[in-house]
Every structure is written in C-alpha cells, then in structure tokens.
Amino acid sequence: MLPLYDLRGRVAVVVDILRATSSIVTALASGVTHVFPVAELAECQALGAQHGCLTAAERDGRAAEGFDLGNSPFGYLDGVLPVRGRAVAISTTNGTQALRRSLAADAVVVGAFLNLGAVVEFARAQQKDVVVVCAGWKGKFCLEDTVFGGALAERLADSFDVSSSDATLAALHLWQQAKGDLHGYLLQSAHVRRLNSLEANKDFAFCLRVDEYPAVLPIWREDRLVALQHEVARTL
Amino acid sequence: MLPLYDLRGRVAVVVDILRATSSIVTALASGVTHVFPVAELAECQALGAQHGCLTAAERDGRAAEGFDLGNSPFGYLDGVLPVRGRAVAISTTNGTQALRRSLAADAVVVGAFLNLGAVVEFARAQQKDVVVVCAGWKGKFCLEDTVFGGALAERLADSFDVSSSDATLAALHLWQQAKGDLHGYLLQSAHVRRLNSLEANKDFAFCLRVDEYPAVLPIWREDRLVALQHEVARTL
Asked: Which reaction is recorded as catalysed by this protein (chains A, B) (predicted)?
C-alpha cells in the first residue's frame, strides 16, 4: 500500500513487531552503536566482512545460515555474543524492505511495543503527520503491526486527528479489542501461529512488552539506524 | 493488495458497499437484465450509444454529467427512469476497477450487505476458497467494505477456515464491533463523511440493509454481470 501514500513532510514509523523492529530497538538498547538494515543476505555478509559489523539475518521466520545472529531480540540480551559497542548489519524478510521504502519521509523511525513511549514523544515533538508503515507478512496485512498502529493512535489521539483515515480507525478499534489481553489476542494471528516454536514463543512474549525501552528511538541517519535518546531530550 | 493474491481456483467476491456493488445488486433486483461494468466514462457512453444501454457513472462520489444515472441505488427504485428489461453500462471510481482486476478467479460475484445471504449461499455451494476484493477508496483501505468482509466471514465460519488470514480475522473483529449498530459505527468512516449529503445519507442507510435482496447474486459472464438466482437454486 505504501506507494499510495505521500511520505514527504511526514514522519514514517516503520513497524515489524515480529521481530525486526523489536530486535532493532533491543539492539540499540543493549549498546549496539548502529544498525545497517539491508535487503540482501549477500550485502549483509559483505558489510560484516568489510566493516567488521556483526551480521543478523532471517528468512521466512528462521535464522539464516552463516550469520552471527538471527532475528531474535534475545540475541542482544543473552550474553552469548558481546554486542555493546558493535555495529550490526541486519537483513530480514519484511522489516528491512519496509524501512528502505520509507526513506522519502522527513524522518524515519523504528517502532515497536518495546519503545512505544519513545515513538509517541518523538511524534509529539515533530508535530508532523505520522504514517505508520506496517511491514506485514510478504506484503500482506498482519495483525500485530496493525494493532501497534492502533496503540500509537490511541496515545496520540489527544493532539492528532486519528479519524481522517479509515485504516487508522480500524487499527484503533482492533487495539481497543486487543489491549486487555494483547498476548491472548495476538495468539490468534496467522503470523504468530506460523512462528510457533519454543524460541519464537519466548520472542513473542518479549516483543509485546509495552514500554520496555521507553527512551530508545532508532532513527534513520544517512545509511543507518542510530539511537536518538539525546536528541529527543533536546527537542522537548 | 490484489496482485499479492492468487485468484485462480477461487471465488472472488467484489465489494464496494458505497455504492457501486450495492447499486448493481439493486439494479438486477429491479429487473435490469445485465450490467456492463466499464472503467472509462467514454466506454460507458459508447456502450449506451451502440447497444442502447442505460448509462450510469460516478466520479469522486458524484454523478457524472451526461449519463442517465449516477451511482445511487435509488436510481433503480424511484421510478423516474424505467429500468426493467434494460441493460446498464456502469462506470464507478473504485468498484469497476476492482471487478475487472478480479477476472482471474474461477467465479466473480458481486457482494453487498443487500445480498449477503446470496453470497453466503453461493460460497457454500462452490466449496472453493473465497477472496473478498474490497474496492476501498482510490486503492486505500475503507471501513465499510472490510466490515462487509467480516460479516461474510462470520456467516461462513461454520464451514470455512476464517482464521488462516490475519486480514480476515481483523475484518471479523471489526464486524463484531460494528454489527450491534452498523449505521452508527460506519458514520465514523472517513469515506462516509466524505459522501455526506442528503442524497448520500439516504443511500448510505439503504446500502446497510442486510439481506434486502437475499436471492440476487450478480455473477460475471463473459463481458457482463447477470443475476444468478436460478443457477444457485440448481446447484444446491
């Protein structure tokens, strides 16, 4: 749907709750200096070889072979591989593509339940229209990204018009149905069932924690995502 | 989104509640023999001139100049223009395009709240996967078409799997929120507010009548939509 929206003059919030954007937020929260999102596995490996980045890659919901990390946020938390002070080149099925297609926006930031508060704060400070770019599953609608859009709309409803788009209204209504039991609600999702495994269930529960990292905002700068904590503080 | 879905082997239900598919159902229910859906206004006029069809056209929610009818279902009901036994060439902003893009399906039928029961009956008889093609507004999501998809999913849930697509689940949830007061719910829709006028409000209320024409199923045959009442009865 993205080509139907004009991103110029707007803030793009790119969302791939399971799991790309949740992992990117977790990476920056864990001391990763910056993230290179790339579309192709080969490009990801080349960045690793040339720049000494860690590499992280996933295809069809699984860790790809020959990379340092998969797409689990726990790769940045479990201490198996030291990540503090390192850069990471990351390639995922849906999230990376959504990010690279959003670069016409005035600002491109990464959203997840984990950093919802940071996204809200940034959007308020910018006072520009916000487009939530839901990565979805292979271009199709998915429930968890849409429900995140609804959560964001709810928090912004006091100072933004959230009723001028039917898509935003629908997302808001779905979030209102889901929020009492987000975990139970999203267990219905086809995408969640597709990821069903012990590792994925642990990831799933983690990715739904709202405001785990309320001050971590990954923002696009030139060719990479960096954390914006200080700039947000300065703007406000 | 349509190019992401393979329609072969499936039934496509094309929906443009406000107002193309509601008007097509009403036309066939009112004795119109067949409907030619066309993309361009000029093609619509040419069909009128060459084949003696009535012509109906709408652009951006308003009746287009120089045509017999606009896009209101009341054009077929109010008796101003006799329609029984006539063919109609109809061109609308979104509905016609959605219809013509759905022709790869095994069967293409037209759905509206007005003929929901007929769509349900047909889908059950076919026992093929169903794709609900929501025309939307200029390619974008709109609430009323999605909510119709949810109503259809609810009625088919006893014999179809409605949980394998997140889009279907979301539509079902929105319908469940909406159905207690469909009119009030859809008054929030951006599209509905865009159509807001005396004539449009009357159309709007009419287009939400569930099962007004429970036996009228417009189906695509060669180059036109015809009513399928008898064939449905034969299949069952």
From this structure: (2R)-O-phospho-3-sulfolactate + H2O = (2R)-3-sulfolactate + phosphate
